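From the methods appendix. Each design record in this collection lists the tokenized structure first, followed by the designed amino acid sequence. Records were kept in a plain field format so they could be parsed without special tools. The example shown here is representative of the layout used throughout.

RECORD:
FOLD TOKENS (313 positions):
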């Protein structure tokens, strides 16, 4: 299952509206097939692994990070049916699929065909792996990551607007890696006019994973997808993971609307003093409301900068 999860990770930010799934086929102690959901959602992980395994799939165990789909789509057959036809002997799944078209049907159909089914193996890790897909299902919108790069005293720029560069090259490279794991990236009009950012991925080998560019603005902009309000992220098609990168007004608007699920906080070991704060009014009325909202899930040094990752408590 660990290998299946690692394969699923290859598709993060690439498979919407489908979940990023990993699959490993094992027969007689040997891996005979591997697969992960491809860009755009097809082919599915199971289909890719079965194609690689061929006849060796008969009698194999399929380790999958999500219940195999049970519904027929114009884009391809149901993976449950493919596993049954291939003669797989056992399915080990991390979790069930909340899609109502499958939701237990894959497991029951496989069981009726004589396939042994085991579920709940490393489920928490699998849920984190497809958090964007699950957020879309539960909340009707993408999973939203807010990225902030600040000085020790919480500034994102000097008072005159100078902001390049607060963090060092390692932190900036990590930001590009994070961009590659989101289908879309969003900024506000002020950041567009001040910085004209490219918002692409400039890491060797990952340039093709540059996210779609979204502008928070009521005025259309050539070369950009625009939305009029934070709530409109629910209407962005084929985006399950959205990264918000700037600026302070936009970040504050998303926080005030309670639309942030994950925080990437990069802090440089510098003091700016009087400058431009990372955040404005986020709608907090009492200090007590600020506590208990976030939990730290990762912390590391990136050169001289510190990265802290927080998720909704």
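DESIGN:
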């Amino acid at each position: 299952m660990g290998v299946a999860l690692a394969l699923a990770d290859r598709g993060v930010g690439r498979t919407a509206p489908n979940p990023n799934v990993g699959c490993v086929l094992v027969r007689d102690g040997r891996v005979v097939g591997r697969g992960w959901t491809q860009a755009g959602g097809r082919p599915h992980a199971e289909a890719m692994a079965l194609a690689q395994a061929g006849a060796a799939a008969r009698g194999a165990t399929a380790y999958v990070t999500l219940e195999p789909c049970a519904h027929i789509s114009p884009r391809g057959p149901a993976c449950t049916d493919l596993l049954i036809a291939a003669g797989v002997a056992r399915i080990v799944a991390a979790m069930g699929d909340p899609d109502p078209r499958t939701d237990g049907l894959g497991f029951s159909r496989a069981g009726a065909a004589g396939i042994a089914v085991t579920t709940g193996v490393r489920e928490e890790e699998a849920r984190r792996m497809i958090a964007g897909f699950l957020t879309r299902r539960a909340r009707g919108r993408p999973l939203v990551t807010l990225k902030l790069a600040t000085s020790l005293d919480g500034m994102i720029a000097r008072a005159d607007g100078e902001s390049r560069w607060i963090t060092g090259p390692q932190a900036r490279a990590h930001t590009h890696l994070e961009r590659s794991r989101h289908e879309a990236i969003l900024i506000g009009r002020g950041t567009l006019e001040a910085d004209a950012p490219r918002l692409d991925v400039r890491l060797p080998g990952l340039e093709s994973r540059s996210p779609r560019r979204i502008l928070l603005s009521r005025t259309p902009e050539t070369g950009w997808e625009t939305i009029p309000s934070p709530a409109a992220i629910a209407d962005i098609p084929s985006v399950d993971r959205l990264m918000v990168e700037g600026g302070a007004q936009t970040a504050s608007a998303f926080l005030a609307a309670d639309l942030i699920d994950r925080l990437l906080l990069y802090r440089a070991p510098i003091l700016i003093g009087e400058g431009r704060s990372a955040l404005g009014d986020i709608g907090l009325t009492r200090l007590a409301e600020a506590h208990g909202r976030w939990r730290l899930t990762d912390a590391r040094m990136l050169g001289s900068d510190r990265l802290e990752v927080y998720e909704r408590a």
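APPENDIX NOTE: The chain has two domains: 1-130, 141-312.
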